[in-house]
Please model this.
Amino acid sequence: MSTPFRIDLHTHILPPRLPDVRERFGYGGFVSLEPAEGGARMVVDGSLFRDVPATTFDATRRLEECDRKGVAVQVLSTVPVMFCYWAEAEHALEVARLLNDHIAETVHASPKRFAGLGTVPLQDPDLAIGELERCVGELGLAGVEIGTHVNAWNLDQEELFPFFRRARDLGAAVFVHPWDMLGSERMKRYWLPWLVGMPAELSLAICSLAMGGVLERLPGLRLAFAHGGGAFPFTLGRIDHGYRVRPDLCALDSPRPPGAYLDRLVVDSLVHDPEALRFLVRLLGPERIALGSDYPFPLGEEDPGRLIESLAELPAAARERMLSGTALEFLGRRREEFA
Model:
């Protein structure tokens, strides 16, 4: 029996070298990479942020692992800590260009196995638009990965609207990933920012885009959300109920409740539980769900696609749609491009 064609929409990559830019920029907070046994250490101002395996930056080893696990194509995006939204915009742009050039080089070296999403300095929407245009036009990337917020701005901030409009006009895919999780000051233990904060961040982002009128104003904007859309799908009943019973608070900038925009959202399959994935299929349909593993990190799916394939009661066409078809549509690509 042949392995189904699989596209992993949610994977992260770094260049093999990230210089320490503190001296050049005149302040800290940026990530650098230091070699370590079996991989590297992500270091911020001399302190360990995270150990990462060699597959984070070694494309050859990534492809070997993809072959072992039956993944035909990985969609590459940076690690969210690299967004640098907190930095001076011109410095964040310099970091983004380094990351985007590396992703483009990796994709161009193996165009049948990789697609790419860039990163942009969203704290300066004009600079972000310029780098978005470079990513899509010059570098040939499918779009960009962005965070669930930009410092104090949620994604409905009016300053961000021109960026989303330009992404729509370019046909760029926009993959939304949590970062800098809300409530972290109260979640110092038990890895709770990743376990509780991430799902909340995603729900906040989706509600902001829906209730803030961005989805209403920009038909055609292609959006996908990591980690199954976080808490949003599972609290949608409460959210829509709130919109109906308190329109004075909720119906300020959108004529319809968030649930009316489900056909505008794509989420990845990374929910770790077959019943949760079944619920997503009932709510969204397989055409709005794409395989995503969070490779190569431990909170991801070790064998990409296994959860989707475990839903044996679904028609084969539905599983195939989630394994590759939804990602192809979101990226604006055809399967033949990866054949």
Notes: The two ends are 19 Å apart (CA to CA).
